[in-house]
């Protein structure tokens, strides 16, 4: 059976993601209502988005790719940490990443005037540049 090779903690997160995403889809709720943003959290007082954003995805392909990644990385990490530590780590990661995202969005939007997406795009381009430079090796131009 497929699920027998997936550790319990990873399976719990997988099921949680699929059930919550499917419920939002079937309720015809806009995924944007569950997306995290500084405006939604602090002005609209939608604090639940800090957690909900981790479980709502942009579409079928998005959730499929994320769940495949969860199976691969979750299985490895849970094998090293154990189930309870893995779930504890995952829960705090969701909260921490949500709060970190809010901080980054605050800095990007309110201080620099850039939207988070533009900041993310610039960051990705920087990572690509670093990768290209690493692939060239030291001393090559």
Question: What this model shows, in words?
Answer:
The protein is mainly α and 141 residues long. The protein has one domain. It contains 6 helices and no strands. Helix 1 runs antiparallel to helix 4 and helix 1 packs across helix 5. The chain is globular and about 50 Å long. The protein starts with 7 loop residues before the first helix and ends in a 5-residue tail after the last helix. The mean pLDDT is 84.
Short description:
This protein has one domain. 72% of the residues lie in helices and 0% in strands. The chain has helices at 8-26, 38-43, 49-52, 60-81, 83-112, 116-136.
Write the layout of secondary structure elements.
Elements: H1 8-26, H2 38-43, H3 49-52, H4 60-81, H5 83-112, H6 116-136
What spatial form do the alpha-carbon principal axes imply?
Answer: globular
If helices are DSSP runs of H or I spanning 4 or more residues, what is the number of helices?
A: 6
For the record, the count of structural domains works out to 1
User: Which secondary-structure class do the elements indicate?
Assistant: mainly alpha
Record keyword descriptors for this entry:
141 residues, mainly alpha, globular
């Amino acid at each position: 059976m497929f699920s027998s090779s997936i550790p319990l903690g990873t399976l719990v997160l997988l099921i949680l993601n699929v059930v919550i995403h499917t419920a939002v889809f079937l309720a015809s709720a806009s995924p944007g209502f569950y997306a995290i943003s500084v405006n939604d959290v602090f002005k609209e007082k939608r604090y639940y988005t800090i957690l909900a954003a981790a479980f709502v995805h942009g579409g079928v392909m998005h959730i499929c790719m994320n769940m495949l990644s969860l199976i691969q990385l979750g299985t490895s990490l849970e094998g090293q940490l154990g189930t309870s530590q893995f779930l504890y780590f995952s829960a705090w990661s969701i909260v921490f990443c949500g709060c970190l995202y809010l901080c980054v969005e605050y800095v990007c939007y309110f201080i620099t005037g850039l939207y988070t997406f533009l900041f993310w795009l610039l960051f990705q381009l920087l990572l690509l540049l670093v990768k290209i430079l690493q692939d060239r090796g030291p001393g090559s131009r």
